[in-house]
Amino acid sequence: MTPLLSVRDLVKHYPTADGGRLLALDGISFDLAEGEILGIVGESGCGKSTLGRSIMRLDTPTGGEIWYGGKDLAKISGRDLKQSRAEIQMIFQDPFGSLNPRHSVATIIGEPLAVHGRPDRAERVRQLLDLVGLPQSAAKRLPHQFSGGQRQRIAIARALAINPRIIVADEAVSALDVSIQSQIINLLAELRREFGLSIIFISHDLSVVRHISDRIAVMYFGRIVEQGPAGRVFENPKHPYTRALLSAVPGIPGKTNGANGKRERIVLTGDVPNIARRPGGCLFHPRCFEMRERCRTDSPELRLIDGDATTARLCACHYAEPA
């Protein structure tokens, strides 16, 4: 199957005050299929949001390729970039900070339509409010007059205004109460089914990602360390980092400890490395509970460990074995 979006060897550096560089993304590669929800997970600071912003070209990548519609989004500008943004939209983490407090909801949702010269803006705004479950009276109100969940619905309506094919949802539910999170997650899933949307769902909450995603990519220190179908990754994680993350999430099944039948709990030791002074070898080796001597010197590649073109399991660990 030809992917809708292909990211290849994406790199992003940020300059530091001492003249050095901070490597936020270090060779990220993945494909997104049409109608698929890909979950991107990892600890805070691993590069998830930078990845989303780079795909949107809100940050310009330092290197690599982002292929969509036969064009490399990492290199285009002007009219081509404007057109790509009509087809790839973003939902930001903070539903209040991403909405202009001085504009009415009608203006906020209608702005993408105005930018791209779409007619019948008032009618489209009414349709979108219905679509995300908000009353028509919301159109005349300001963002501060809504709850957090309602504001995120407004942000979703704005993202859908010009009928995009891809949504990048960056921590779209992390600022919301649990009950509201489930409503927004269900809304995104319904929109995917109704419109065939493809979604890159970025989150640090693995229980949320498990609920909504078809596939999962686990990030650590700017790299993908494990990738595969959501069910297989959650049931049988292969990378030690993935295993540690999953062991900390209540209610997610995992490997058990002998006769007591309790889920294995993995507590990582050691300090998180300084992102400006990356360790040699495997980036995870200073914290890894299965570290061996080779891990100190050899950086593992993200390699296929089992599956085929549609069920591929990839893992960046020297000692990961097929299921």
Automatic annotation (TrEMBL):
Query: Superkingdom of this entry's organism?
Result: Bacteria
Q: How does it sit in the membrane?
A: Peripheral membrane protein
Q: Does the keyword Nucleus apply?
A: no
For this protein, the record's Gene3D superfamilies field holds:
P-loop containing nucleotide triphosphate hydrolases (3.40.50.300)
- State the Gene Ontology terms under molecular function: ATP binding; ATP hydrolysis activity
Pfam families with a match to the protein in the record: ABC_tran, oligo_HPY
GO BP: peptide transport; transmembrane transport
Q: One GO cellular component from the entry?
A: plasma membrane
The protein's location, in the record's own words, is: Cell inner membrane
Domain ABC transporter: start-end pairs: 5-246
Record carries keyword Nucleotide-binding:
yes
Can you tell me which family this protein belongs to? Belongs to the ABC transporter superfamily.
Q: What is this protein's record name?
A: Peptide/nickel transport system ATP-binding protein/oligopeptide transport system ATP-binding protein
